Amino acid sequence: MTDAGNGSGGSPSGGGQWKAREHDERPWGSYTVLDDDAHDHKVKRIVVKAGKRLSYQQHARRSEHWFIVSGRGAVTIDGTATPVAAGHAVDVPVGAAHRIENTGDADLVFVEVQHGDYFGEDDIVRLEDDFGRAEG
Fold this sequence. Notes:
- The chain is mainly β.
- The chain contains no helices and 13 strands.
- Strand 2 and strand 3 form a beta hairpin.
């Protein structure tokens, strides 16, 4: 699902045009792609609803850096849970099992910078998932 830009939901591209940003609603919240023009990184704004969490997952071809913008939650990396709040940053190495959970009463918002050579959905191995999407 995309959000057509009219200056409020896009980014400038050549010639003063606005490029639509990819946006998707998920059972746990939503994400908006902020930058995917480079071959080695992708940037997303992710919103996790209160009481929800993302899949416990791994990636073979990318690392991730998360900066918590607002809200509070818990990040689990390779089985170790750590509380996070606005201003905290988290590094997720390539291959690490990871997830983020909203433990607060308001939205948890973070910016995710993916770094690697491939960013497709098929580089997600879901180990656990609250919405029935885990691998066999």
